[in-house]
Every structure is written in structure tokens, then in C-alpha cells.
């Protein structure tokens, strides 16, 4: 009997013997690095969002209940749209199930982030450490913002992905622009409304006018970014479809693929 056959009988099919060196094979493709960037974007965005930002603070323009100026937002306004662009790429190329798995990875990473910040804040500061108050003022709001981010992100990203793949089921490989814009409008609106409703107080928003401004400007900004960078998104998706070895037609429904 060969040594390999003996090892299979003793350790199971494909299992290495104790005197062998073995490693697991990493799956090929671009899914893993995209998910890593997707998750990093979510974590960094939730930290940046602790800062309230105001543009044209010396101006005051209102339209009914909507405050036009000053523009009120948070410090993550320039980065967070990337999470939805990456979510669109994942949904278009890898399908709903793979994107849902990436969303759960991001959810777990954000949850770990808020737990770690809570532990760090609770730890007794060293006698020479003089920045405890500053750390609490910056990181302290993060748990509330992460809760807002978790809720908004989970609902928004799942709606974004589901909407894109359902539109794709009807349009097939045509009309990518409709899938990108349609999914963004649905997902970003849900995400923005949920996030802003929970996070507004944490960044200092106090009036209804500021809140409406925060929601509307955030939603319009994220949607506009999606439209502006659409040529880049098109290019990235085309390259992935061309070079991903597993990209092929599926027979199951869009939400099952």
C-alpha cells in the first residue's frame, strides 16, 4: 500500500500526515481584495464620520423646511460613496450571495471596531498619558455612529445589491447604467435616512432644518458621486468580467446566484 493511501486511511481523504508540511490553497480571483477594500472603507468612514462638517457657514439660505445653506454633513462624505461603488461592483460581477457574504464580513468588522473602542476607553490610562479626555471626545461618539452605520449599512447595502441583481435579471448584460443608478438610489436613500436618524445627535445636529439638510445633501451627494465615477465603475466591472475565471451564465434566480 502506498504512503499516500496509508495517510488517507489514517487521516482522512486529502488530510496531511503529522510528518508532512501542508498549507491551504488561496482561491484565485479578485473577490478577496475587493472585499478587503470594501470593509476598510466602511471602518474608516465610521471613524471619519465623528466630525461634523459645515460648508458656507456664514450663509443662511432656506427653502421651506429645507436648509440650503450652510451645508451640513460629516467627515466621511468624501469616502463613504466608495463603499456603494464597491458594492455595485461586487453585485454586478459576483452576484447577490457573494455580495451578501461581503456585507456580513463588513458588519462583523464594524462590530469589532465598536467593541474595541469601548474597551480602549474603559482601560485605565497610564499616569503619563494626558490624552484620555481628547480620546473620549473623538472616539466616544463612535459607538453610536457605528450603531447608526451598522443599521444603515446593513439595510442599504442589502437593498442596493438586491435591486441591482433583480434589474440585471431583466436587462441581462445590457443597460449597466440603469442597474448602477437604480440600485444606488434605493440603497443610498435607505442607508442615509437610517444613518442620519441615529447619528445626527452624535455629530451635533440639533434642528429639523439641519437634519433635513443632512439627509438630503448626503443622499444627493452620494448619488451624484455614483454618476460622476460611472465611467470608472464601467471599466472596473468590464476588466473583472474579462479576467475572472468563474464569470459565467447562471441558471438560478438572481437572488440565489
UniProtKB/TrEMBL annotation:
GO terms for molecular function: transmembrane transporter activity. Pfam families: Vut_1 (PF02592). It is found in: Cell membrane. The keyword Disulfide bond does not apply. GO terms for cellular component: plasma membrane. It is a multi-pass membrane protein. Keywords: Cell membrane, Membrane, Transmembrane, Transmembrane helix, Transport. The keyword GTP-binding does not apply. The chain crosses the membrane at residues 30-47, 67-90, 102-125, 145-167, 179-205, 211-234. InterPro entries: YhhQ (IPR003744). It comes from the Bacteria. Belongs to the vitamin uptake transporter (VUT/ECF) (TC 2.A.88) family. Q precursor transporter subfamily. HAMAP family: Q_prec_transport (MF_02088). Involved in the import of queuosine (Q) precursors, required for Q precursor salvage. This is Probable queuosine precursor transporter.
